[in-house]
Amino acid sequence: MLYALIARDKAGALDVRKANREAHLAYIDETGVVAQAGPLLDDDGGMIGSLVILDVADMDAAQAWAAQDPYARAGLFESVEIVAWKKVIG
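^ that's the sequence the OP posted. Answer follows.
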């Protein structure tokens, strides 16, 4: 099942994002459950969060993946929301 993880960065946390980006991308690659992903951007194109579409068995698996994400472990996010998602287009 697909789940959308929508995470908003803490204000002023760009350095945390940059410092953990390589580990975050490696985690995505290693786990093999990310269908799509990318940063959320502000009006100036700066990174302010993440959108990750997970293809996992259930909400528990989505929450477990989110908890182990190096960005989350580094304390990057102010908020994280995970919701079931249905792909219709694309």
